[in-house]
Every structure is written in C-alpha cells, then in structure tokens.
Amino acid sequence: MENTGISLTTLTLFVPLIGMLVLLFIPRSQEHTIRWVSLATTVITFVMTLLMLAAFNSGDPDLQLVTYMSWIPQWGISYYVGVDGLSILLVLMTSFIMPSAILVSWKSIKERVKLYYAFMLLLQWAMIGVFVAQDLFLFYIFWEVTLIPMYFLIGIWGAENRVYAAVKFFLYTMAGSILMLLAILFLGNEGGTFAVPQLVEAVRNGTLQYAPGIEMLLFVGFAIAFAIKVPVWPLHSWLPDAHVQAPTAGSVILAGILLKMGTYGFVRFNLPLFPQASVEAAPVVALLAVIGILYGAWVSYAQDDAKKLVAYSSVSHLGFVMLGIFALTAAGIQGGILQMVNHGISTGALFILVGILYERRHTKALAAFGGIWKVLPVFGGLSLIFVLSSMGLPGLNGFVGEFTILLGAMGSDVLSFFFTFFATLGVIMAAIYLLYLFQKIFMGPVDKPENEALKDQPLTWQEYAALIPLLILVFWIGLQPAGWFAQMSASVSQLVAQIGPYVQLAAGG
Question: Which of 103, 237, 246, 500 shows the greatest Cβ crowding within 10 Å of its Cβ?
C-alpha cells in the first residue's frame, strides 16, 4: 500500500497531544489557564470527530479517512490509521466523554493540577489511538500507553488505597498484554505484515492459514488481554478497586472508554482474524458473559458503597456486550457496539453523580444518605433519568442496546436459547440493584443534618455542563436509534459475512 496524505483521523488523533504540549509551557501557578486549555483541547477534539462523522460514508464497509505511512518497512510495520463502522462511534464517544471528565475535575483536583491535566490529555490521545490504529504494532503501543496515565491518575489523585488499586490495575493489564504481544509477533511473522486489513484479507482469501491448534492459541492470546480489560468474569477483580480508588474523572474514563477497548478488541481482531476459533469459543465466552451478567448484578445489590455498586454493575452490563458480540449475528454485534456507547454514557453519568455527592459529603456509604431528592430536586431528577437509562427503560438508550443484543442472541446459530433466558434475568436484577441505589440515596426522610445542609451546595455550572450532554444522548439514542445503527451496519454485515461459513459449518455439525 502506498503512503497516503494526512487524514482527518490523524489530525484528530494528535489534537490531545498538542494540547498536552501546550500545557507544558504554562506555569504551574496558572491553574485556571491550565483547566481552560485542557477543556478547550477536548472540545476541539470532539469537534474534529464530528467532522470525521460528517465525512464518513456509512454505506462503505471498508476503512475510511485513512493515513498510511511506512514506518519500519523491513519488518512490515506502518503508521496506519483509519475508521470504519466498527470504530467510528467509539472514537466519537471517546471525544464526547472527555470534556465531561475535565469538567468534573474542575474543583475537585487541587494538587498537581498541571500534571493531572497533562495525563488526562495523554490518555485521550492513547485511547483514540487504540480505536483508529490499523497496524498491530501501532495498536499495541497505544494499548500500553493508556496504562501509564491511568496508573498515575489512580495512584496520585485517588482515595486512601490508591497505590494498591493502581498497581493491581497495571499488573493485571500488563499480564494479559504479554500474551497478546506474543500473538501479534506470530501473526506479523506469518503474514509478513502487521497491517490489520491485509491480515484480515489474507485470512478471508485463504492465503494466511493456521496450523492445527494454532488459531485457537492465537485467539486465546488476544482474548485474555481483552477479557481482562472488559473485564470478563472471573478476570474482573481489579475493576472495583480501580473504580473505587480512582478520582471521579478516572472512574468516568474507566467505565466510559477504557473498558470498551477490550470489547472493541474482540470485534476488531478476534472475530475477523480467527473466525473458526471465534465460532468454537463462542459458547464458552457467552457462558462467561452470562455468569458475569448475573454475578455482577448479584454482587452490586450486596454493596453498601455507592461507587462500588456502580463499579460492579459494569461487570454485569459489559456481560451483555460480550454476549452480543459472540452471538455472531448482525443484530448481536450491532447491539454490542451500541451498548458500548450506552454504557459509557449511563455508567459514566452515574460515576459523576456519585462524585458530586462525595465532594459535598465526603462519603460514599449508602447509609449516610437519604432524602437527597428533597434537598437537591434537580440533581435527584437527573439521577433518576440516568438510573432508568442504566436499567434499560424503554425510550432511553440502554433499552435499545440490550434489546438488540438479546434479539441477536435469540437468533444465534452457535448459542442456545438458555443464554438469552439467563441474560434476560440480568435485566430484572439490574432494576433491583439500581432502584435500591436510588432509594437509599434519594428517597425517605432527611434525617441527617449533613444532608439537610446540601441545600446550600447546589450543582455548579461545571457539573451541569458535564451532565447535560450525556442526558441529551440518553434520549437521542433511546428515541432515534436508527441513525446510530446505520453508521455500523455495512461494516458489521461484512464481518458477519466473513464468519458466516464457519457458523454454518458449526451449526450443521
């Protein structure tokens, strides 16, 4: 492939990095300027992703807005970025959530402000890079770089057990990444290139064939790295610690974006590069997903810490995404991708809401609250909408994703009816633990003077500015989902067509 010019994808990718470099020249004492430059950088990045969406042709299943430059030609390594229907919404979501993460940090981060925002922008650069990289070597670099700023965001600005949580997060992810690195090296050596589209095409036309057993080993190498990041049960134990100890913005980014790197990895790499192994592994992955759905919901209900409850809910919600992906149907995969976006919106908003309460009450214990809706009625109303969104109430975004996932799982040729049945129980359990969360915090009498005093601490403009855009998307996706599905339909159809022969073979056997 010949070198191409600079695309919108590359321009968008490097905006956060440029913003970070600008921060380095601002004196530490000018904290107000640092905050505004950081916010402006994330807003400009979001505008750039809107331009990408405007230039994106949803009817074309192949890569668009591509930049290809030979980097290390003797090893088949290139700077290769672009987007398709599998990634465009995730790039958009990454840029959309970051301004909210900056805004909720506005008053809560008081120490090492310059370093904090520099890490935030570096993290945004790396996360966008993960979603646009089309070279395995480049992808791996971005994948690993995301660890560094998040490690420090948790370890420096987190809660009392922040160092333990940061180290646990780092070690878990690194352990999985080693296996993925070995698989990447094997693929690059066998295929003669690290370019993902060329490798996928070689698998599709049969020029890249695996020796017996090798495809499943490669599948597992990628899958473990991605499963830890999701996290899939039972590889989830790092997540509650990281969420609870992270600052509010760190939890928002973890839930909203970082976890989706794992689910995206399955769609981008495992399914097209290892189609036969994907079909063979689908029942096992779906079983782990359903266990995660039920386990996450059950453990969420048992929590007495609001932030930990929301953290465990991610295990349950992302179980639905994994079930949709490994239903290996168009409906399931499209529902899974949309639910990645939905979870980022709804759970990201819940973490913001818990963070707002923590800033005022300095506790996350459910027993410390009660009657908050009476003293902060607007805040209570916003919270109710996001709780119902996370529950999957019809008319809101969560319902569309979950319904489509269950529809795809029901029509799957590789999964039995029982996967859908038990996953549906998870919808009921989600309503139980989320209504329990809302009841403990917002309902009942205001029987503590600290809660009564919240009348004098209304939401700031930064907090409203962080929540209102998320609120708009809750209704937009819930009421008008067709446009969102249209962006990914062609690419998902192409992916399902590639896997189709293996599915039919398995179903026939």
Answer: 246
Residues in Cβ contact with 220 at an 8 Å cutoff, skipping those fewer than 6 apart: 179
How much is the pTM? 0.90
Q: How many CB atoms lie within 10 A of CB 40?
A: 14
CA dihedral 103, 106, 108, 111 (to 10 degrees): 130
Q: Which residues of 164-189 are buried (b: 16+ CB within 10 A; e: fewer)?
A: ebbebbbebbeebbebbbebbeebbe
Cα–Cα distance between 495 and 238 in angstroms, integer?
32
From its phi and psi, is residue 250 left (phi > 0), alpha (psi between -120 and 50) or beta?
alpha
Q: What does 276-313 look like in DSSP terms, one character per residue?
A: HHHHHHHHHHHHHHHHHHHHHHHHHHT-SBHHHHHHHH
213 Rama sector, left if φ>0, alpha if ψ -120 to 50, beta otherwise: left
Query: What does the alpha-carbon distance between residue 357 and residue 306 come to, in Å, rounded to a whole number?
Result: 10
Q: Residue 467 and residue 337: Cα distance in Å, rounded?
A: 22
Buried-exposed string 402-441: b where 16+ CB fall within 10 A, e elsewhere? bbbbbbbbbebebbeeebbeebeebbebbbebbeebbebb
Give how far the C-alpha of residue 329 lies from the chain's centroid of Cα atoms, to the nearest Å. Answer: 21
Cis peptide before 275 (omega within 30 of 0): no
CB contact at 8 A, 63 and 84? yes
Preceding omega of 149 cis (within 30 degrees of 0): no
Contact 499, 328 (CB under 8 A): yes
**431, 442 contact by CB (below 8 A):** no
Q: Report the DSSP beta bridge partners of residue 195.
A: 135
**Residue whose structure tokens are 């599905």:** 485
- CA-nearest of 86, 71, 95 to 8 is 95
Return the half-sphere exposure (C-beta side, CA atoms, 13 A cut-off) of residue 153: 30
Please check whether residue 65 is in contact with residue 82, taking contact to mean a CB–CB distance below 8 angstroms: yes
List beta partners, residue 72: 77
Distance separating alpha carbons of residues 408 and 374, to the nearest angstrom = 42
DSSP 82: E
Residue among 264, 258, 234 nearest 324 (CA): 264
- Where helices occur in 302-416 by DSSP H, the ranges are 306-325, 330-361, 372-375, 377-391, 397-410
What span, in angstroms and rounded, lies between the C-alpha atoms of 181 and 189? 12
Which residue from 274, 240, 284 is spatially nearest to 259, judged by alpha carbons?
240
Q: What is the mean pLDDT of each run of 10 residues along the chain (509 residues)?
A: 76 93 89 91 94 90 88 84 91 92 86 90 94 93 91 85 84 86 89 87 84 88 91 82 84 87 92 91 92 90 86 89 92 92 91 87 81 85 91 89 91 85 89 89 81 77 89 92 91 89 74
